[in-house]
Amino acid sequence: MKIIYFANSRIPTEKAHGLQIIKMCEAFAIGDNQVGLILPNRVNREYKRQDIFDYYQVKKIFSVVKIFSPDPIFLLRFTSGAYIKLQSLFFSLSIFMYLSFKKDKKSYIFYTRDEHLLPVIQLFSKKVVWEAHNFPKNNRFYLKYWQRCQKIVTITEELKKILVKNGLPSAKILVAADGVDLEEFAAVTDSAEKLKIKLGLPLDKKIIMYTGHLYDWKGADILAKAADRLSHNALIVFIGGMTKDIQKFKEKYQASQNLLFLGFQSHEMIPHYLKTADVLVLPNSAKTDISNLYTSPLKLFEYLAAGRPMVASDLPSLREVLNQNNSILVEPDDAEALAAGINFALQNVEFSVKISKQSLIDAQKYTWRQRAKNIVDFIDDAGE
C-alpha cells in the first residue's frame, strides 16, 4: 500500500502529536508500505537543525517532504485564533499546488488527522482516511467531508459513537487507541535505584511522577493540589510543560515543598524517568469532552509499558484501556481522592506489584506496529 500522510504540524515538536505522527509513519513503513509524510516548512528555532529521524529515534524508512507554506507567526502576538485559521489556509493552498503537479497520486491512500485538510485532499482522491482525535465544534461543516472519506479511524470508542450518532456508518469507522514502542522500555534494564542516581533524583523519597503538559484538562493542577495530602516522604515530579506554565505552577504552589519540575525531557529519556517512579499519575479532568470522552494519551501507554503502579482518573476515555486490574481509578477533579489513591498505592506494595505486572501484560496489545497493521487491514478490507 502507498500512503501519503498529510500533517499540518511543526515537526520536530515537544508536543505529543508530533511523536504520534512520526511513530505511525514508521509503523506503516515497517509493514512494507510505501510511506511519505508531507509537512509545512514551519520553523522552530530550537529544532531548526534537528533531523526528524534522529530527534524521534525512528528508522529512516519513510520519506519526509516539507513544502513551502507561509507561516504568519506574527499574528500570535495578537490572537492565536486568527493565526491558526490563516496558517491552515496557507497550508491547504500549498497542498493543492503540491498535488496538482504530483504524478500517480491516484495510487496513494491519503491519510490525515487534520480535518481541515479534508476539503483540499478530497479534490484529488476518493481514497482518503481521516484519523479523528477530537469532535470539532464546527462539525456540521465537516460532516460532508467525513461522509466522503473512504474510512475513518478514531482513537476512542466514545468518539466513534458520536460520529455514528451524526450519521456516519459504523462499519466505516475503526477504533484504534494510541500506542507505545515497547522496545524503548525493554532497553532500560537498570534498577530504579541506579536510574535515580543517574538522573539526580533523591533515593530517600517516594517518586510520584507525571509526564506531559500542565494544561487544565490534563489535571496537572489537581495533582499539585494533592501534594499536601500525601505521605511525608513523597515527591511529585513533573516531566514536561512549557516554561511559562512551569513558572506559573511554581508561583502558585511555592508553599508546597514536595513538588519538583524538571521541564521538557527528550523522548528517549522518558522510559528512564518513568522506571524510577513509585507511582505514575494520569489525573485527567472530566470537565471537557476531549479529556472525558475522546483522549487516548500517549502517556497512558508509556505508563503501562513502564510496569509501575498507575493512579488515574476514572473516565470513559481511560476506561477503554484501564480497569481495576491494571490501575487504581479515582474520582476525577478531586485532589483528596487522587491523594488517597496515591497513598493506597504506596502503602499496599503487594497490590501495586500485582497491577504493575498486569499493566506490562496489557501494554503488549498497544504497540505502534499492531496499530498500523490494524489500520492498513481495515483500509484494505475487501470491497474498498
Throw out a few tags for this protein:
single chain, 41% helix, alpha/beta, 17 helices, Rossmann fold
Write the layout of secondary structure elements.
Layout: E1 2-6, H1 16-30, E2 34-40, H2 52-56, E3 63-67, H3 80-100, E4 109-112, H4 118-121, E5 128-132, H5 139-148, E6 151-154, H6 157-165, E7 173-175, H7 182-186, H8 192-199, E8 206-211, H9 220-225, E9 234-239, H10 243-252, E10 259-263, H11 270-274, E11 279-282, H12 289-294, H13 298-306, E12 310-313, H14 316-319, E13 328-330, H15 335-347, H16 349-363, H17 368-379
Parallel strand pairs: 1-2, 1-4, 2-3, 4-5, 5-6, 6-7, 8-9, 8-11, 9-10, 11-12, 12-13
Strand residues, percent: 15-25%
CATH architecture type of the largest domain: 3-Layer(aba) Sandwich
Q: What's the N-to-C terminus distance?
A: 13 Å
CATH topology of the largest domain: Rossmann fold
Radius of gyration: 21 Å
Percent of residues in helices comes to 40-55%
Total count of strands:
13
Could you name the CATH class of the largest domain? Alpha Beta
**SS-based structural class?**
alpha/beta
Placed side by side, the strands forming the largest sheet appear as 3-2-1-4-5-6-7
* Global morphology: globular
Q: Low-confidence parts lasting 5 or more residues at pLDDT below 50?
A: none
Order of helices and strands: EHEHEHEHEHEHEHHEHEHEHEHHEHEHHH
Q: What does this 3D model show about the protein?
A:
The protein is about 40% helix and about 15% strand. The strands form 2 sheets. The chain has a 7-stranded parallel sheet with strand order 3-2-1-4-5-6-7. Helix 1 crosses helix 17 (about 370-380) and helix 13 crosses helix 16. It has helices at about 15-30, 50-55, 80-100, 120, 140-150, 155-165, 180-185, 190-200, 220-225, 245-250, 270-275, 290-295, 300-305, 315-320, 335-345, 350-365, 370-380; strands spanning about 1-5, 35-40, 65, 110, 130, 150-155, 175, 205-210, 235-240, 260-265, 280, 310-315, 330. It has about 375 residues and is an alpha/beta fold. It folds into 2 domains: about 1-180 and about 365-380, 3-Layer(aba) Sandwich (Rossmann fold), CATH 3.40.50.2000; about 180-365, Glycogen Phosphorylase B (Rossmann fold), CATH 3.40.50. The chain has 17 helices and 13 strands. It starts with a strand and ends in a 5-residue tail after the last helix.
